[in-house]
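quick one before i forget lol
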Amino acid sequence: MNFHIFEDPEYQDINKQHIINTVSYFFDNFQPFDVVCEYEHISFNPELPSDIAQRFSHTVLFSLAGYTFESARINNEVLEFEAGFGEEQFGSVVTIPLLAIKQIIIEQMPVLINLAMQSTEDTDYLEVPAHLRKAEQKETSKVKTDDAKVKNSMEALLKNPKNQKFLKKK
């Protein structure tokens, strides 16, 4: 599989539009939902206290229900909402770029999965994760193997003189 397709701007635009349409539909129908996203792309205003921020892992799940759902909106290709964190319910506006949203879930069922890569500020694309890179390398070696099989197949076909009728003449 060609994992670079997930970095393609056209594919990213398709996914952004799908996320916008899905979230807008849920807003219009008052359907609470959860989002799973990449922490590194999330911003908080005001910034979370360090004791709260350090609890987050690479992937974060936010439940948009109640006041959080009511405050949520899509604005300039980001999902924004207000949420409370920690025992003190420290209030902050959460901003998530749409492509950083990896899943949208309703009642523990994924209803949207986004494989497009969110760009970082330093690069035009994210590096393909190691586990995907390995899969891509396997795919590349499979293509080479498949090419060899085609070549061997063609050689076998050409060895039999009766198969000449299947070849195009120039």
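fyi The longest strand covers residues 78-85.
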